[in-house]
């Protein structure tokens, strides 16, 4: 990045190269289960790509000894990563996915059987020799059973977290300022793939970061920090899905989303869970999916009079091989469903000083009728609801309906609070 200030005008006028970089998680997954691996790193990186003579003057610079220009592709330009990735994708195209994985200047030769590794290396070296690409011997490891690739420890058994990243958090002392807390959350994010419910475990730290003016490391933060260290000491081993074997994806809404909740906040949380599911798209596309559900979801999505949102989801799900399966009705399964899905319905008696405020309003027009409800909790939180009636009503009837629905909603919220 030190050359960025030299080529600022060139960067502004240069069109962005949108050549896609490979997904790191998919590259790492593809290396799991190989008996022998060889990690290689290109020497001098981008400097191995020569610039066209007519473009060299565009990357010239002035120093005390005179004016000079690069004859090879320099570091710091915004398109160098995409350019290098396009190069290695083209030259290793017959091997990528079979016995080679490449991410910019990081190369890995993999062999399912140890006896084939020498042959795979010969094929790779012939390509490197043909295109005159050089390696850095100090950063290469040949014929090993495991090693670090793109920040992950890959072995025949599976994928492990980088021990150095784990040690950095375990040896870390409790943050005393905002910058150190940000450093902690950054290190946790680097290991999020191996940490179950990483967002939930990191929530106290993120709450601390919100207080930008006054940093406070309280007791919940310290307890979460100690629990995180204990969890990192026994991180799980990730394995690649085996073809033909079923994969299980467990998804459960937290209780706060099952209770009556502000529409905007509920949609925000649902969007976060949808985004989390989209990260597993490569696994869903490569395997048949069996959905166990009690409701007739297939018939609902296939109705011709389905709403616009359901039509959108039906189109989105059509690219997957999905079969909808009824849940088993054995007693153990019914009990498990009851425990996982039902919520506690106990109603707590509100104290005399806890007041709930209910504001309702109903209206009727030629296009239809509806109601607006605002419930204010004793803590001062406003829960807003907008309702559209599917029947005709006058203004007075709409207001009566709004009051009845508001009272029922407030009663349900009090029951779950």
TrEMBL record:
Domain of life: Eukaryota
Domain Reverse transcriptase: 1-154
Single Gene Ontology MF annotation: nucleic acid binding
SUPFAM superfamilies: DNA/RNA polymerases, Ribonuclease H-like
InterPro entries, A to Z: DNA/RNA_pol_sf (IPR043502), Rev_trsase/Diguanyl_cyclase (IPR043128), RNaseH-like_sf (IPR012337), RNaseH_domain (IPR002156), RNaseH_sf (IPR036397), RT_dom (IPR000477)
PANTHER family: RIBONUCLEASE H (PTHR48475)
Protein name as annotated: Reverse transcriptase domain-containing protein
Organism annotation: Sesamum latifolium
